[in-house]
């Protein structure tokens, strides 16, 4: 899924489930809690790095950040499962790296958005472990294009 106004050629796919479908248990707190494999194409030629945010806007207390990853080299066009590339921020579980879907039981399905941004700079110049507000601030004025992919998950 792409945002209106961004170049139509920049596309992100997440392995293991179709756009809008259920995220496999393997990638959740009820499974192995490992990040899924991602791949992308069509980034603008002037891209110098990438940043990735995975969040859940349906969390009871507001948007929950599951994965903050930045300073991904521009030559990269995929992340393998359980990726360790780039620099990790601190997710809302209070730890670095990926934290899979883990919504409250009987809360209904939640949407999880993977947002990949092509950036103008080779590095955002921020330390590892920053939280979402600091990452958002560093991203201001640096995004060339954004591609999105959404999955759902529900704990019963």
What is this entry, summarized?
This protein is 5% helix and 33% strand.
Could you describe the 3D structure shown?
It is globular, with a radius of gyration of 15 Å. The chain has a single domain, classed as Phosphatidylethanolamine-binding Protein, CATH 3.90.280. The two termini are 27 Å apart. The strands form two sheets. It has a five-stranded antiparallel β-sheet with strand order 6-4-3-7-8, covered by helices on one side. A three-stranded antiparallel β-sheet has the order 1-2-5, with no helix packed on it. It is built from one helix and eight strands; from the N terminus they run E-E-E-E-E-E-E-H-E. The longest helix has 8 residues, at 132-139. Helix content is 5%, strand content 33%.
CATH superfamily: PEBP-like
Describe the oligomeric state of these chains in a short phrase.
Answer: single chain
- Total helical elements: 1
Q: Kindly give the count of domains.
A: 1
The strand count comes to: 8
Beta-strand residue percentage: 25-35%
Unreliable runs? 1-7
| CATH architecture descriptor text | Alpha-Beta Complex
CATH top level is: Alpha Beta
Strand order of the largest sheet: 6-4-3-7-8
What is the residue-mean pLDDT, rounded to a whole number?
Answer: 94
How does the helix and strand content classify structurally? mainly beta
SSE order, as H and E?
EEEEEEEHE
Task: Give the proportion of residues in helices.
Answer: under 10%
**N- to C-terminal distance:** 27 Å
- Output the radius of gyration: 15 Å
